[in-house]
Amino acid sequence: MSADALTPPEAARWAARSGLPLAPERHVEVAATADHIHSVVSLLRELDFGDTPPSAAYRAGEEQDRATV
Q1: pLDDT per residue as tens, the chain (69 positions)
Q2: How many CA atoms lie within 13 A of 14 on its CB side?
Q3: Which of 22, 27, 60, 67 has a CA between 20 and 30 Å from the CA of residue 1?
Q4: What are the DSSP E strand ranges found in 1-69?
Q5: Could you give the CA distance from residue 69 to residue 60 in angstroms, rounded to a whole number?
Q6: Which residues contact residue 21 at a Cβ distance below 8 angstroms, ignoring those fewer than 6 apart?
Q7: Cβ of 30: how many Cβ atoms within 10 Å?
């Protein structure tokens, strides 16, 4: 875990601020899950998508038509 890892008390505090109070036995698991999600998102942010168009530009039917021509 990084120095910025979410601690169980912080996880409980953030959950309560969001209107989702956690039972004390869930604090550790929620903090670990939040840290895992953060690490995955951090990796995704490092990806270079270059000239990849946004998903709204993708047309599935057109891709299939080009592949068969």
Answers
A1: 455 889 999 999 999 999 999 999 999 999 999 999 999 999 988 988 888 888 888 887 765 555 555
A2: 10
A3: 22
A4: none
A5: 15
A6: 12, 15
A7: 19
